[in-house]
Design a protein that fits this description.
The protein is α/β, with parallel strands linked by helices. The chain has helices at about 20-30, 50-55, 60-75, 90-95, 130-140, 170-175, 175-195, 205, 230-240, 260-280, 300-315, 325-330, 335-340, 360-365, 375-395, 400-405, 405-425, 430-445, 450-460, and strands spanning about 5-10, 35-40, 80, 110, 115, 150, 195-200, 220-225, 245-250, 285-290. It has an 8-stranded parallel β-sheet with strand order 3-2-1-10-9-8-7-6.
């Protein structure tokens, strides 16, 4: 059993759960062996001086965080504060009030995947005003948590590599890794000022292995990766050799998927567990992200939540657990098999993609998108037929009068089937109109209004 068994839920892209949904999540985490919860925050905490950033996001307030902190404590869960502090700050830096803090105010950074970030995403590490800005955030956020830990993020700092960035001269002189590490140390020192032990995402420092040994020994590295073949072993060894405490961090494989990637989720969580145990990880974290508009409902993440808890507590025997039965019990309706069936549709036609499914890519792109050659019309028709069968099975349990809370899980499974069906029938305007309406209705069952308009805008137009 790992000392720290954590779950992270993204509440910044674009879905912010209601308090009742967060309480349900806490109960599920306690049931399945977790003892930590993080809510990933970019702009969705109601900072008193920064309403311009969060006013349309339905953010969590300080009072709500304190309520959730108490709820977590009653269930044996530690609520760990989370605020990204370096990369992923586009919701802030795109605003005129904060653009002067950006490393690349005009945007346009290249990502490792060959895409371009149109908006500025990264805080300028060589501007003293950046730390002043973070100090103000920490002073307001951190007193609401009892935990002595704090996730300061610091991942995917793409703008720092731009030759047009404000820190370009420092990067040229010292190297990008050194500039990154210097700022990471400053943010960590700021967290310590508030009595917190900082944890950070390890992706950037792993690109500069010569600097890993210079990390302060109280830092907790979060070694993340979301594919079944992610090199957790090699990365965990680097942090272990440097004498750092670290977590291994897999994921639910639900984001950018429509209905999940169940087999990838199994492989990914098992690989993280094996590396964590071999190299003495202090924690095991299951992450649940909202990329691409957070189209997937909570039901899509439930298999990963349950199986991840089993790996964190039971270890290798978790691979043999009866996940379908566990899902049935958790939802209160016998739809575990239906949920898992939807979660394997991404495998058909050989259409494999990193961190997404081909079906998601079809639905999220314009009509001219060139789909995977394995997804022939006949394969798409077959997938659509399976989705229809899953929709029919779940529809039988959508009556709240008969099935209580289980009816919401059933509604979410119906919606997942509709998402898949819409991807298979991308040119059917009637289906797409219906999907937009249903997405809004299902969203409101568990989540706040903020972020919904952004999510709907990412659905295909007619």
């Amino acid at each position: 059993m790992f000392t720290h068994r954590a779950y992270l839920l993204d509440i910044s892209r674009d879905k912010v759960p209601t308090m009742s949904t967060l309480r349900l999540l806490v109960e599920l985490l306690a049931k399945f062996g977790y003892n930590q919860l993080q809510l990933y925050v970019e702009h969705t905490f109601a900072y008193s001086a920064h309403e311009a950033v969060w006013k349309d996001a339905s953010p969590l307030t300080a009072a709500e965080i304190r309520q959730l902190n108490a709820c977590c404590a009653m269930n044996g869960i530690e609520l760990v504060p989370n605020q990204n502090t370096f990369g992923h700050l586009e919701r802030w830096l795109v605003k005129p009030e904060y653009n002067h803090l950006a490393e690349l105010p005009q945007g346009g950074a290249m990502t490792p995947w060959g895409t371009i970030k149109k908006e500025p995403t990264t805080l300028c590490p060589t501007d003293p005003k950046s730390l002043e800005f973070l100090d103000g955030l920490f002073a307001e956020l951190l007193p609401n948590f009892d935990s002595r830990y704090f996730n300061i993020g610091c991942d995917e700092t793409f703008d720092l590599l731009s030759p047009c960035g404000r820190s370009a001269a420092a990067v040229k002189e010292k190297g990008a890794g050194r500039v990154y590490l210097d700022f990471l140390k400053e943010v960590a020192a700021l967290a310590r000022k508030y009595g917190k032990r900082p944890m950070f995402w390890g992706d950037i420092i792993l690109k500069h292995p010569e600097l890993v040994g210079e990390l302060p020994k109280d830092l907790i590295a979060l070694d993340w990766g979301y594919e079944g073949n992610h090199p957790f072993m090699a990365e965990a060894l680097k942090f272990r050799t440097a004498g750092l405490d670290f977590y291994v961090c897999g994921g639910t494989s639900s984001w950018n998927s429509l209905s999940g990637r169940v087999e990838n989720m199994r492989e990914n969580l098992q690989a993280a567990e094996a590396a964590g145990r071999q190299f003495g990880a202090k924690g095991y974290m299951v992450t649940d992200w909202g990329d691409g508009g957070h189209w997937q409902p909570l039901a899509a993440s439930l298999p990963g939540l349950i199986l991840g808890g089993a790996f964190a507590t039971d270890g290798p025997p978790a691979a043999k657990m009866n996940l379908e039965e566990a899902l049935d019990a958790a939802m209160g309706v016998p739809l575990g098999g239906t949920l898992l069936r939807l979660g394997t549709l991404y495998l058909r036609g050989g259409a494999m993609r990193a961190n997404a499914t081909e079906l998601f890519r079809i639905l999220s792109n314009d009509r001219g998108y060139s789909r995977h050659p394995g997804l022939t019309d006949s394969v798409l028709a077959e997938i659509s037929s399976v989705a229809e069968g899953c929709r029919h099975a779940a529809s039988a349990f959508t009556s709240p009068t008969l099935y209580g809370p289980g009816a919401i899980w059933a509604e979410e499974i119906v919606h997942m089937a509709n998402l898949v069906d819409a991807a298979c029938n991308r040119r059917d305007e009637k289906r797409l109109r219906f999907l937009r309406e249903e997405h809004q209705r299902v969203w409101r069952m568990r989540n706040r209004e903020g972020g919904l308009a952004d999510s709907v805008a990412k659905l295909p137009r007619f």
